[in-house]
Amino acid sequence: MNFLDDFIIRAALAGLGVAVAAAPLGCFVVWRRMAYFGEATAHAAILGVALSLALSLPVFAGVLTVALLMALTVSTLSGRGYAMDTLLGVMAHASLAAGLVAVSFLTGVRVDLMAYLFGDILAVSRGDLAVIWGGAGIVTTLVVWRWSALLTATLNTDLAYASGIDPRREQLILTLALAVVVAVAIKVVGALLIAAMLIIPAAAARSFSRTPEAMALVAAGIGAVSALGGLAASWHFDTPTGPTIVCVSALLFAGSAMGAPLRRSG
Amino acid sequence: MSLLDIKGLAVRLGANTVLHDIDLNIGRGEIVTIVGPNGSGKSTLLRAIIGAINPSAGQVRRKPDLRIGYVPQQLHIDPTLPLTVRRFLGLPRRVSAATALAALEQAGVAPLADRPMSGLSGGQFQRVLLARALLEQPELLILDEATQGLDQPGSAAFYRRIENVRARLGCAVLMVSHDLHVVMSASDRVICLNGHICCEGAPKHVASAPEYRALFGAGTQGALALYRHHHSHDHDHDHDTPEAAI
């Protein structure tokens, strides 16, 4: 018997894959104050689910497309003087609502909406696992390859220009990576909790880190502990797995935040 | 060939024409200072030079592969981004520990290498920014009001450092400044900007030019002149409301 036959093993590997992909990207989301941006992209994913079910496409493809369109729309509009939080508030909830309405039109297809809103990590198949780790690989490669340029553009756009880096291009790469993470994570934690997997581990890692690289690695570690700990806890307490993973992550953040004043390393 | 050649540059931001008819040439090893009232387009000109703003007319020609060291007016580092001085120097290109230390020594802040950027004082921060700019081995060093927030002795020391850097690296320096009297002594050429180039030349020449006096008042001694200048000056140029453009 292959060890991937065990659904718990598959769930653990899926959780680890999402943690690895989300950690470095989550750091950029935190540094660039894009938290709500991640959320808007994630909420749009429900619309992607509805469309892919209606058109009989793989869910991954539909979610990736809609998440990408959402991210690009927000990126474009943000340069045109709209108040960012208002814009995101409109887009995030409008796309979530539109997605929910669209799903209700799907007669003949039985849709377990809860599975897409909150994830269904225990039902991860081998195919899902391949998609998750494939996506994680793409995102990690992209971020490692562009790391210095991304970091410089995040620090200050003028510094980036002076060094021959185009910050708009780096923003586009982040946007692309964000859409991929949303698409692979929807199975694991669901559309409503993806932003949590991006932001909470990165925020918890801040007080342990003196360099950006350290923060990304610590965030990946915290994400991995959250995924495995959440899986174990949901088994033990018979609770929904996705939300339990996020709860463990939040507890780690709380611990880190309370410990921070003692360390104060800056 | 000169490092930088600007012809007929105009920049429009929204409905405002911030800069127009700018011709500017910078040669090797020159120290050129831009002075001008608030909203006269000084920072905009620098940002057009580094390529952060697209001109609406004219062109900015840089020497091919021109290495630019840029010291921004201010750099806000988000508190969630952990960054030591040493790591900051390695952005975007990693440098060896020895190279980083040498740059910090040149800027006079060698003991700070392992400190977080968030723990630096204003003067230390500016010198670290300078150290980073020097690591690019610049042919052209661009400073945008680099002494903002420094006191008089602090900014005087900073400009002496710039002159030392020029002497050692042979790079040209283009800076924007508010410290008029320091500028006058430290520059080869001064450009007086107010949406366009009002006048330019050797510091002495500019200080006595009617266009300059119209902008900054007759005395170049104190900074007060800067804030009391009249916009309704009478040299025969046409000024678009400079206050509207920042």
TrEMBL record, chain A:
Localization annotation: Cell membrane
- Protein name from the UniProt record: High-affinity zinc uptake system membrane protein ZnuB
Organism per entry = Pontibaca salina
**Function comment:** Involved in the high-affinity zinc uptake transport system.
A GO cellular component annotated for this chain's UniProt record is: ATP-binding cassette (ABC) transporter complex
Is Plastid among the key words of this record? no
Membrane topology term: Multi-pass membrane protein
Which keywords does UniProt give here?
A: Cell membrane, Ion transport, Membrane, Transmembrane, Transmembrane helix, Transport, Zinc, Zinc transport
InterPro entries from the entry? ABC_BtuC-like, ABC_TroCD
From TrEMBL, chain B:
Question: Which domain of life does the protein's organism represent?
Answer: Bacteria
Which GO terms fall under biological process for this protein? response to zinc ion; zinc ion transport
Q: Which intervals hold domain ABC transporter?
A: 4-219
Molecular function per GO: ATP binding; ATP hydrolysis activity
Which SUPFAM superfamilies does the annotation name? P-loop containing nucleoside triphosphate hydrolases
What's the protein called, per UniProt? Answer: Metal ABC transporter ATP-binding protein
Recorded hits in InterPro entries, A to Z, give: AAA+_ATPase, ABC_transporter-like_ATP-bd, ABC_transporter-like_CS, Metal_Ion_Import_ABC, P-loop_NTPase
**Organism expressing this protein natively:** Pontibaca salina
Concerning Pfam families, the annotation shows: ABC_tran
| Coiled-coil segments on the chain, per record | none
